[in-house]
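Teaching assistant here, posting this on the class forum so everyone can see the example we discussed in section. The complex has two components, and the goal was to see what a joint structure prediction looks like when all of them are supplied at once.
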Amino acid sequence: MNKNGNGMKKKRGFWLMLIVLLQLLFLGGIACFHYSALWVGKEITLRTVPVDPRDQLYGDYVQLNYEINTAPYSKWKGSGKEPNSGDAVYVLLTENGKDGDYEVAGVYDKKPSRSAGEVILKGRVQYTDNATMRIHYGLEQYYVEENSGKELGERAGNLLVHVKVAPWGSAVIERIEL
Amino acid sequence: MSRKWLQQEGPSWIHQNIITPEQFQRILACYPEQKRAIGLIPILGSILVGLGILSFVAANWQQIPDVIRLLIIGITMTGFYTAGEMFRRRNQENLGTGLIGLGLLTFGAGIVLIGQMFHLQAYGVTSFIVWGSVGVLLTYLIKSRYLFLLSLLIFSGLQWYNTTEFHHFSFAAFAIMAAGLGYYWLKRPDTLLAWCLAASITVQSILLVTVHEWPFSWFFIPVWLLYSVMDWSKERKSVYPFQAIPLVAAFVHNLVIVLFYTDRHDSTFLQDLAAQPFWFSLALVAIFALSLAGKHRHRRLSSSPDWLLALPFFYLPQGADAAYLLVLFAFSLYLLWRGYAEEWAVKINLGTLLFLASTMAAYGKLAWNFMDKSIFFILGGIILLSLSWFLNRRKKQFLIEHREDQEEKPHE
């Protein structure tokens, strides 16, 4: 029994090692995926707009409300009818001529083709109302050290946020212009 | 068995020449002192240490450079897993499993923390599905109930998060959970795990229906499907939780209609609830047939009245609440009767509970408008107390008789 038991233990140890290794690779993979955006991504500038309440500091993060979080139905370019809340969408952004920040050019249900100056962000429809779609990109929270984001929180409605977007869709906030 | 009890009784057995003193010592050696309690302490200890480290790192997290943060996560996780496996090899199974569970939790925390490093807020649950799947793999590898429950909790939690936060139901997560944990359960049946798994599947079915804003009664379909599949199992008692939870869910559904619907209110309550009749009936009849076929095959057609609860009275233009009230009574009485007939304590307990619920629903429904409120509560309380006294006495009698029976002729 002992020999058999040892064999089983060894086999179990091997599988456990493999599973742990896969977890490490997975965590490393997510980190690299996001880093890659910082390294090779195209830099774009996004403008935030005020919301109520004005102070958007919640403990250890600041809630950011971008202009591109809301898109009118006229921007819907997908096949079929308008998306429901919970649907994944691809948002084509294009540079605004005078300010240099990026605005919504179209919202698609499948990944559209893009020209040189444009970028595509993947988002999820949060909710819809009569005229607009509310889309979240996962870029809406900016983590700060506890008790240090006061100024940022109060000015959250009027910021320029520099985001790097990799060609494969990963997007990361690089810095915030105060 | 209690060692203390053995120590007390042993000398009298020696005295009666049932066993020799040597045999007594050998029996005693089979029950080492306080093993169970000692097994629990290391798990509690590992949880405390883990929480301490977690809160320390969390407090200083933002000052730590990215690379170091990644290293901390990786090393902590690997450390927990390695230590867990080491203790398991030294036959400290509980402590080892506890540590491996902490490894799994660290993996989940790592996913969240890495997202935070890049100021990313998850807007999907894909990475959490990976987390839960790792939990399932570990459950298979370690064969532990603790890891089973942990994985179940991860999958249920992520589905809850997904539906409340993103208005989205992940079929992939549901499939991995049901297949992975369900198959594990088949290989190693366990009552507690069955109750938890059945409850999670039922709750997730409700989430599925509500998140898509389908008429609520559609949740009958997955829930009764679960019930019917279990009719095909040769085993009966161990799979009963998978049938009891669907029955309770259907019971509660009907109970809510009884309590909150009356014909006099001209409301759209039932219309909002009612699924499209043609497809719903078709699906329900198909599942009913599947269930009956399974019951027939294993000769337990006597449990068919369970299906009373599935009767779709919500299509009735009038009197739906009365019809449901009758069903509630019929079902709980039937369950009580079967419980005594089959000498099955779970059914008796469940039947008692449901019978009390039906009684109170009926009482509330009929008496609320016609009585002074204080008399209403006093009378209701008295009815409830006397009923529970009566049912409990019956149950105790039954259990005593049953035990005597068993002592006389140990069956099965």
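For the discussion questions: The mean pLDDT of chain A is 84. The first strand of chain A starts at residue 42 and ends at 47. Think about how each of these relates to the inputs above.
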